[in-house]
Amino acid sequence: MKNWMKKAILLGLSFWIALVLVKPVGVSTEFEVVAELLKNALTGQPLENPISYGMVFVLAMPVGAWLGNRYDRKKEKTALAEEPFSRKEFALAFCSGFFLLLGARIAGGCTSGHMMSGMMQGSVSGFIFAAAVFLVAIPVATFRKK
Question: Which domain holds residue 127?
């Protein structure tokens, strides 16, 4: 079994365990929670307890990314890792991610919630969102590679 397939199975299993034991995975709601906490802190209103499953999940993402990066450094570098983004490409990627998140929130969920958890639950919107993401991502990645 190929390495990417093992990782895909592990990711799917993680989402399934979260769905069965806690709730569907999704993080964009936590951005609203953080904004509310900041507003309350700035206006002097009492702060609610922000520690929840979603907040722990959001805070664990950069930790997991850092650990993955540390683990990956021990492996052979890929071509993409050797080609850092320019400032223009970084700004474009950041803005694209912002609009992707904004659109998903307007649609009532987030990217991981719609695509991964939504598809696991048989949600039509999850399948439509996943198709739209790949219909845009594949040409963009092909263009970026050229």
Answer: 3-145
Per-residue model confidence as pLDDT tens for the chain (146 residues)? 788 888 888 888 887 888 788 777 777 777 777 788 888 888 988 777 777 777 887 788 888 888 877 777 666 555 455 566 788 888 888 898 888 777 767 777 677 677 777 887 888 888 888 898 889 888 988 887 76
> Do the Cβ atoms of 129 and 107 come closer than 8 Å?
yes
What is the count of structural domains for the chain? 1
pTM of the predicted protein model: 0.54
